[in-house]
Design a protein that fits this description.
single chain; alpha/beta; Rossmann fold; seven-stranded mixed beta sheet; binds S-adenosylmethionine; Small_mtfrase_dom; S-adenosyl-L-methionine-dependent methyltransferase; S-adenosyl-L-methionine; transferase
Length: 218
């Protein structure tokens, strides 16, 4: 396994405002590393986009896995502290990426000259009240997913359909409470995305899954 990105520039004070990498983050890294030959050879990405990049650990790791620096790495996060740290993490690990503070993909489209080939989202997925989804507290906003933990996820699904290139792939982290079967059915029914569970892990009592969606037979 490639070493995880160096995060020693991030202080405990930073983690009061930015989601600290946890089991879900590391499951994401595993799923990307397991798929790297497929991603390099079959997807051959021009643009990768991570929504909700937090510390930037996932996108920086993806940049390291892809290795040649020719893929444009873009990140968004609704939290300005997160986008600032995402850029620092990339620089600390000699990766170039751009990070934009915005809600999901708003404000991003004018910057895209090509559809997205690899889309990653480790969303707020914990079941909470709907009010918590729009909390002013950035840490709460990192995990609060509203009803069934699906409120942010459900806003992202149609955007994934709009953004992905024809051979693009979308990795989405979910937990059992989010009803992964229903998400997959919806992606197939509404957008004809094929799907599989790319990785899964029990973290405490929570079963986490990385769902992988794509359009073509790959
Ligand atoms: C579970 S954390 C994941 C962070 C990081 N990707 C990781 O794996 O460690 C979810 C991230 O999504 C961000 N987020 C929440 N709602 C968002 C939205 N509407 N648009 C963009 N980012 C959002 C949070 O600020 C947080 O950084």
């Amino acid at each position: 396994m490639l070493p995880t990105p160096n995060l020693d520039h991030i202080t405990s004070n930073d983690y009061e405002n930015v989601y600290e990498p946890a089991e879900d983050t590391f499951l994401f890294l595993d799923a990307l590393e397991n798929d790297i030959e497929f991603l390099k050879n079959d997807v051959n990405p021009c643009i990768c986009l991570e929504i909700g990049s937090g510390t930037g650990c996932v996108s920086t790791f993806l940049g390291q896995l892809l290795g040649d620096g020719s893929t444009l790495l873009l990140c968004t996060d609704i939290n300005p502290f997160a986008t600032a740290i995402t850029v620092k993490t990339a620089i600390r690990n000699s990766i170039h990426l751009d990070a934009i503070t915005t809600n999901l993909t708003s404000g991003l489209l004018p910057r895209l000259y090509h559809k997205v080939d690899i889309l990653c989202f480790n969303p707020p997925y914990v079941v909470t009240s709907s009010e918590d989804v729009n909390s002013k507290n950035f840490i709460e906003r990192a995990w609060a997913g509203g009803i069934y933990g699906r409120e942010v996820i459900d806003r992202m699904l149609p955007l994934a359909n709009d953004l992905l290139s024809s051979n693009g792939v979308f990795y989405l982290l979910v937990i059992s409470d989010n009803k992964p079967d229903e998400i997959c059915e919806r992606m197939w029914r509404d957008y004809k995305f094929q799907f599989k569970i790319s990785a899964s892990r029990l973290a405490g009592r929570e079963k986490q899954f990385i769902l992988k969606f794509w359009r073509n037979q790959t």
